[in-house]
Design goal:
The chain is 20% helix and 29% strand. The strands form seven sheets. Strands 3, 16, 17, 19, 22, 24, 25, 26, 30, 31, 32, 33, 35 and 36 form a 14-stranded mixed sheet that branches. Residues 1-53, 208-223 and 769-794 have low confidence and may be disordered. The longest helix has 32 residues, at 593-624. The chain is α+β, with helices and mostly antiparallel strands. It has 16 helices and 41 strands. It starts with 12 loop residues before the first strand and ends in a 5-residue tail after the last helix.
Length: 866
């Protein structure tokens, strides 16, 4: 598998260096898909749907094997990488720490047999996230000659991330602390399981900051000449990273074949793309559909000008449709070319590229040939309200009118009254419902604060639909549900950097972007994943909805409280559970817990009303476009509230407040989510289903409804029979949320089940119940992301049992009252945990072991394997 990196916005590509299944693990905002396709003739295989019919669209990036190809050889000698190894002392690399910059931590280095250990330590006056780095002087020439820096490293500790800076004597060169916490621009989450990984970090001109020294000024434009590199790490506490090597990667290095396919980002928008080294000609044999057109985004590499020529050759006559130089790599140059004069005829579609620069690369982003005829197959709109708790929606009985439109829409669809996300925060939950596989099976939490990206062996929902011939797009304002976890695979166009404003919140911005894409790619059918963040903290309702539940004066006072709270809580954030952070900070600041959380709840409810109105507008737009009747609309959420936000007002409003050790992933506030399915043309609406279901069931359900094959391996079940009117058999709904324990390298966390009236939460992990003697950390039923990441609570039973009929917010375990049920569910969950671990051998990071016939039968008996 080839190395690749973002050539425009941000890439943090990770490659395990010592595992049997080599996974290119993508962190936040990478530009390159791990499923790169080599040039035809180099092992590429035909893809289903590659041949056009009168209706079906042709994804040219999936039809490369059928093309006639001429392209220049890749990789000129002028683009050789520069490598620094650290198996011996390197005095040319020195620390950058508190001694130079007050906000940095203290840094020490220690030579290891194969690496240099870079360690962070507390420094006077530095609170919260610790950060420091290693800096080397380089004579790199033009910055535009380099695409990024690859850091090969390992650690057994929980770091927040690794980042790169350059020309450290300039303003704005150091990374910001918050970027580490949220996998922001220019940072990569770090694996803490001791494995050797490659972290790809982009180099690009800074948008702000002026030269700070005469040497910088002499270099011309700030950042134009590469003079120094800095590798920085961040951590919630003291920690270290062993650096084996640092590689300065030349521009274009990811395009290692003469031609191929990659997911490439431009302006934050990633497209499944064709590339070729100029001069090149790619000739695709096609039969043009009725109303035929080619839709494509054109681009090249930074600093290069490539002339794109697109022609049709039919009956020996060549007709040029486009001849245009493209010299910008900041965004895709979208073009639509009319093929309708050749409707019903066999042609060759020629994509040609010429350039004056040697080894220039031409890019064709999401090149699709389609027609105007409507496909009988349904569109699929998977609309995810990020952090949208069902308990705060009036369609599910909430006493505030937060979702009047959803209440109306429910009359046309099927509502699942007890739907749950499989985890309590975005990354594990989204990865699970996009693959039909649980968090532990996909690799768990191995990268500090970030889940392992979806492994190559797991097929995503987008991949299923594109293979079936659907145009696929994913739009979100939360990268955690997109490229941070490698979900750009199978997506023709992914935009996870859509900008929202006070007037245009996330929902409206994403819906507007979707309609723009439909104009650019009008073919059908389409699959779209839209994940909004209107109701996810911070909650900023638009003017129309401000004041419904929180008067202006109260909102202004809440802002003052927030300032006081975070000032009082200095040193706590990132160093304890989020629940404990708020409890302690509120106490230190002398703020009333009930008043604070109740106002937070009010802002959330206002943004829920806003989200509901946006959905009403969107449905009307689909109706106006004639696309409503044959569209399967699935409305869901990745988690509830308050699990996905910092101010955890759900449990904070209870009196008395439950003990910190009480709780579970299936706390109704945390994981009860909406699940509403509408398909006007096929499904009879107005029904509500009471049996508990999981968001992990969405993948097999929509494949079933769309007539596509079921996955060979899937832990969800199809709900399609129930949607069509059949009874839904009751079965346990599972949850899991795990991380790798630094001391043992084993998973630690929770696997849980809702089984009718009962909920059971089993702690899994090495050592004595609840404790890690080396690190002093505790794995308890967490009930949320931050407790799972920093779970320092008291020892608790290995299994907690809750009566959900009387206690759906899981405040009081009933172990003592029902010892027989404790034994029953401990046995059930241990068996399921064993099954998850078995599947993890196939999908997890170290996937290598062959399953025995007995193990395979065990998985089949559970319904996980067909």
């Amino acid at each position: 598998m080839q190395a690749c990196l973002d050539v425009s916005r941000d890439a943090r590509l990770v490659r395990p260096a010592r595992v049997s299944l080599l996974l290119l693990l993508l962190a936040a905002l990478p530009a390159c898909d791990t499923h790169a396709t080599p040039a035809a003739g180099a092992g590429a295989a035909p893809v289903a749907g590659a041949r056009s019919t009168d209706v079906a669209a042709v994804h040219l990036a999936d039809a490369l094997a059928s093309a006639r190809i001429k392209a220049a050889p890749a990789a000129s000698a002028e683009r050789a990488p520069r490598v620094w190894t650290f198996d011996e002392p390197r005095p040319d690399w020195t620390v950058q720490d508190h001694a130079q910059t007050a906000r940095l931590a203290a840094v020490t280095t220690a030579q290891q047999p194969d690496s240099l250990r870079l360690a962070l330590h507390a420094a006077d006056g530095v609170t919260g996230m610790l950060m420091g780095g290693l800096v080397g002087l380089v004579d790199g020439g033009p910055l535009s000659s380099w695409a990024g820096v690859r850091v090969r490293a390992r650690t057994h500790e929980r770091l927040s991330g690794v980042s790169v800076g350059y020309n450290l004597d300039e303003d704005g060169a150091l990374p910001q602390r918050w970027a580490f916490m949220m996998a922001g621009e220019g940072t990569a989450p770090v694996f803490g399981d001791g494995s050797v990984q490659d972290y790809m970090l982009p180099l690009r001109p800074r948008e702000t900051g002026a030269p700070a020294t005469a040497s910088a000024t002499a270099s011309g434009e700030s950042g134009a000449v590469l003079r120094s590199l800095g590798i920085f790490i961040g951590a919630p506490g003291e920690g270290s990273l062993d650096i084996l090597s640092i590689t300065l990667v030349p521009r274009g290095a990811e395009f290692e074949h003469d031609t191929g396919t990659l997911a490439v980002a431009r302006g934050g928008e990633s497209r499944h793309s064709l590339y070729a080294h100029a001069p090149a000609e790619l000739a695709f044999p096609l039969r043009v559909p009725v109303g035929g057109r080619l839709d494509v985004g054109l681009s090249g590499l930074a600093g290069e000008s490539v002339t794109h020529v697109i022609s049709v050759r039919a009956d020996g006559v060549t007709s040029v449709l486009l001849d245009e130089p493209i010299d910008s790599s900041d965004a895709w140059a979208q073009r639509s070319l009319d093929l309708s004069p050749w409707a019903g005829r066999d042609i060759e579609l020629l994509l040609q590229a010429h350039a004056d620069e040697p080894d220039a690369v031409a890019l064709w982003g999401a090149p699709i040939v389609g027609g105007t005829a409507r496909d009988a197959r349904p569109n699929v709109l998977f609309y995810v309200i990020d952090g949208g708790g069902a308990d705060q929606m009036s369609v599910f009985g909430y006493d505030r009118p937060t979702t009047p439109f959803l209440s109306e829409l429910a009359k046309q669809g099927i509502v699942f009254e007890r739907a749950f996300s499989s985890a309590t925060w975005t990354q594990p939950s989204t990865a699970a419902f996009m693959t039909g596989l649980h968090h532990s099976v996909l690799g768990g939490l191995r990268r500090g604060l970030h889940s392992t990206p979806v492994p190559d062996a797991a097929t995503t929902m987008a991949e299923h639909f594109r293979r079936g011939g659907w145009f696929t797009t994913s739009l979100t304002t939360n990268p955690n549900c997109a490229r941070v976890i490698g979900l750009q695979r199978g997506v023709d166009v992914m935009d996870d950097s859509v900008e929202e404003t006070e007037e245009l919140p996330s929902s409206l911005a994403l819906q507007q972007r979707f309609l723009e894409l439909r104009a650019q790619y009008p073919q059908s059918p389409w699959w779209a994943h839209i994940q909004t963040t209107d109701v996810h903290e911070p909650n900023h309702p638009t003017e129309r909805f401000e004041g419904h539940f929180v008067p202006e004066a109260d909102r202004e006072e809440l802002e003052q409280w927030d300032d006081a709270l975070h000032e009082a809580g200095k040193g706590l954030f990132g160093a304890t559970s989020m629940l404990h952070f708020y409890d302690e900070a509120l106490s230190r600041a002398g703020l009333d817990r009930h008043a604070y959380y109740d106002r937070r709840r009010g802002l959330y409810d206002e943004t829920m009303m806003q989200q509901d109105e946006s959905l009403r507008l969107f449905v009307q737009q689909l109706k106006d476009a004639g696309e409503w009747e044959n569209t399967i609309l699935v409305i869901g959420a990745d988690h509830g509230h308050p699990a996905g936000t910092f101010a955890r007002w759900g449990r904070g409003l209870f009196e008395p407040k439950p003990p910190e050790w009480e709780g579970a992933l299936f706390d109704s506030y945390s994981t009860r989510v909406p699940l509403i399915v509408v398909w006007p043309a096929q499904l009879k609406g107005g029904r509500r289903i009471a049996e508990a279901v999981s968001m992990i069931d969405v993948l097999p359900t929509v494949l079933d409804l769309a007539g596509l094959p079921q996955p060979e391996v899937c832990q969800g079940r199809s709900l399609a029979p129930a949607l069509r009117g059949a009874a839904l058999p009751a079965q346990p709904v599972l949850f899991d949320e795990v991380r790798v324990d630094e001391a043992s390298g084993q998973f630690i966390g929770n696997i849980e089940a809702i089984d009718g009236r009962w909920g059971a939460s089993l702690e899994v992990g090495p050592g004595a119940p609840g404790s890690d003697g080396v690190h002093g950390r505790y794995a308890v039923p967490s009930g949320g992301r931050w407790a799972a990441v920093h779970p320092w609570f008291a020892d608790t039973p290995r299994l907690l049992l809750y009566d959900l009929q009387d206690d759906r917010f899981v405040r009081h375990a009933v172990n003592d009252e029902h010892p027989d049920l404790v034994a029953k569910y401990e046995k059930l969950l241990r068996e399921r945990w064993q099954a998850h671990q078995l599947l993890g051998q196939r999908y997890g990071q170290a996937a290598s072991a062959e399953l025995s016939a007995e193990q395979l039968e065990q998985l089949k008996a559970l319904g996980y394997v067909r």
